[in-house]
Amino acid sequence: xxxxxxxxxxxxxxVERELDKRKTSVHEFxxxxxxxxxxxxxxxxxxxxxxxxxxxxxxxTDLDSIAxxxxxxxxxxxxxxRASEVNSETAFALKLWGVEKPVPIEELLVTYPKAxxxxxxxxxTSQLNKAIDxxxxxxxxxxxxxxxxxxxxxxxxxxxxxxxGSMSTIIxxxxxxxxxxxxxxxxxxxxxxILSDTLNLQGPTTTEWDRxxxxxxxxxxxxxxxxxxxxxxxxxxxxxxxxxxxxxxxxGDQKVFTFKTEKYExxxxxxxxxxxxxxxxxxxxxxxxISLSQDKESKGLSILYLAVVNIVxxxxxxxxxxxxxxxxxxxxxxxxxxxxxxxxxDEPYSMDLGNLVSRKKxxxxxxxxxxxxxxxxxxxxxxxxxxxxxxxx
Length: 393
Hints:
Blueprint: H1 14-31, E1 54-56, H2 63-76, E2 79-82, H3 88-96, E3 103-104, H4 105-111, E4 117-120, E5 137-142, E6 158-161, H5 167-177, H6 184-197, H7 208-221, H8 226-239, H9 246-252, E7 254-260, E8 265-275, H10 278-282, H11 285-299, E9 303-310, E10 315-320, H12 323-332, E11 337-338, E12 350-354, H13 359-372
Parallel strand pairs: 1-2, 1-4, 2-3, 4-5, 5-6, 8-9
Antiparallel strand pairs: 7-8, 9-10, 10-12, 11-12
């Protein structure tokens, strides 16, 4: 019997296929961008209010906020800042590309008392560092919807808001439309941020612009194995989660949205944990529910959710700490399924949201629609009975 040759070919990932489609055209395009030592003077074509401005992202800062502030500062001639401490994913990217961590915004506001502030990756007051005076804001570069907590200014300011998957895509696009080639390190940071916000170009917020800019930035940053970069980055995103307290997990990526209708008025908090291993997080459900309830009460929120998103399998489990959370979730996510709890629990405290993974595209729009369509919080209380004071109804 003769030997049989068996060849095994690895299936190309989504991000690899997107790069393959654009490889030749992107290489030619990037080759025509001026080198760093011969960059054109674009100062006449950019908003002068952004020159020498401080670029700062949102509280509970993430990679898009940090990369965007670094990229915008290089593009417009300003200073990058951070609104809070960076997470493990951002620390990974900064180390990988040899970029210094931006200085805290509080320090820069004192050092440069006359500098304006351009907000990046946010425009809501609930996400604004309290040290920033509204009167110092000269611009907003963002990719989120305008909610009723959007900043209000006395004077017109520069606004660049686009419905793309990442704010860093906007910065990268502005670089190339001005025929500017970002530094290799800056291109790398922007690249990592887009991959993070779009969940490796597989999230529902991903646009053709995100796919194009990933290809362009990968070329400029000289990344030859994008799948390996994504793998390292996503591992870094999950690495710090195991050591965090339940309170830190609940507050790590939490945003608050305020609603007012004829039937409902209140604030809805929505926290997200993105991880490569959701089982590890969900094994701590008991303490997470307690932290959710305590955080909800301490902040005076009407409703508080925690979504645990598996960024590899692209699936989400939503934790429900109270009757209001559960009732609104049922109304908002009609195709989702409540997860049957163990026998000693009174009511379901979690929901399988399937392949819904984006707060911006999937979670908040569905909740907003349910509330605008007339949902009201008729039933208060917690979904679980326990000897703990937190859960007693």
